[in-house]
């Protein structure tokens, strides 16, 4: 098994990270608890050790499902969760303030059924809260033993720098990781964010490596997303940001990239998802790739794709075809694959 050190730390994580946004107990959850437990068991049985969830996934039931599935194997797991997303209607029920993060962490620990998480991440930036307050609160979590390491998600380069400087000024724990939307159709982070992570000691966890399914061929040019699909759900949301995300993702230039991926897959006698995952895994700045399988079969296919090595000529061809692709707007939610 291939393990890498996460950022400027001693934490060793598998190249594959299991994203659990699909897991839950609500009737609309794409993956019900029995199948989720099977996926988690097979993932760990193969030697992978990194599992990521969040307090906002499936109304918190993703954390509950994960917690029950790993209860008897807790020591094998590098368990990551996230806080910041709204947890209620009140003004202090969201964001990166000390009051909200403290409540959010305690609630996550209860749902996960554990006394600590290995990686606690700020899910989204909070421009209303000073970085000093956020980093001081997070450092207190580490000193209390409830959190082992700290990370962030969807932060800008400036946000990363501000946070790392705030931690340094107060001699506290700093971020060791960033979750970033990264795929053949989302490469904007290469300009500033990935170099900033390298300078400031953050490993990078790539989420949505399949471009929310577009690179796997789940959506067709000029056609509305199938009813019940993730994109159909987002398109139906009242949030204009969510609808803008869907429109940006389904841009013509992204279908051009998907066509190129499909052409490469045909030449290599494999499937488009394998090509897309293998490309992300080949990138030197990426520590771990977050997979979001809905079934054990999808997990097996995704792990095969992640372990596939593409010929150098193919890597260069894909790089040239997608280098200037711009990522769609971030919705404020983490997307598994």
From TrEMBL:
Annotated keywords: Oxidoreductase
CC per GO annotation: cytosol
Coiled coil start-end: none
MF terms in GO: oxidoreductase activity
NADP-dependent oxidoreductase domain span: 17-321
Gene3D superfamilies: NADP-dependent oxidoreductase domain (3.20.20.100)
Name of protein: Aldo/keto reductase
């Amino acid at each position: 098994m291939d393990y890498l050190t996460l950022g400027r730390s001693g934490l060793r994580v598998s190249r594959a990270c299991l994203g659990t946004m699909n897991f839950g107990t609500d009737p609309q959850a794409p993956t019900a608890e029995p199948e989720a437990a099977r996926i988690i068991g097979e993932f760990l049985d193969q030697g992978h050790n990194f599992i990521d969830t969040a307090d906002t996934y499936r109304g918190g039931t993703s954390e509950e499902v994960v917690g029950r599935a790993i209860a008897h194997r807790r020591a094998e797991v590098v368990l990551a969760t996230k806080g910041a997303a709204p947890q209620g209607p009140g003004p202090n029920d969201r964001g990166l303030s000390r009051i909200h993060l403290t409540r959010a962490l305690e609630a996550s620990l209860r749902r996960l059924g554990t006394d600590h998480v290995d990686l606690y991440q700020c899910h989204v930036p909070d421009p209303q809260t000073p970085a000093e307050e956020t980093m001081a609160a997070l450092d207190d979590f580490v000193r209390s033993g409830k959190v082992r390491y700290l990370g962030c998600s969807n932060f800008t380069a400036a946000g990363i720098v501000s946070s790392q400087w705030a931690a340094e000024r107060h001699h506290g724990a700093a971020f060791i990781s960033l979750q970033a939307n990264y795929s053949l159709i989302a490469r904007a982070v290469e300009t500033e964010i990935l170099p900033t992570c390298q300078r400031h000691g953050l490993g990078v966890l790539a989420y949505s490596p399949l471009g929310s399914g577009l690179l796997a061929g789940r959506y067709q040019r000029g056609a509305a997303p199938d009813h019940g699909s993730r994109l159909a759900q987002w398109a139906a949301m009242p949030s204009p940001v969510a609808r803008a995300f869907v429109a940006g993702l389904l841009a013509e230039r992204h279908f051009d990239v998907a066509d190129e991926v499909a052409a490469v897959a045909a030449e290599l006698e494999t499937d488009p998802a394998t090509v897309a995952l293998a490309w992300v895994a080949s990138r030197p700045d990426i520590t771990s790739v977050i997979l979001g399988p809905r079934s054990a079969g999808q997990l097996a296919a995704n792990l095969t794709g992640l372990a596939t090595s593409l010929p150098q000529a193919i890597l260069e061809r894909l790089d040239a075809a997608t280098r200037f692709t711009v990522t769609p707007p971030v919705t404020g939610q983490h997307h598994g694959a």
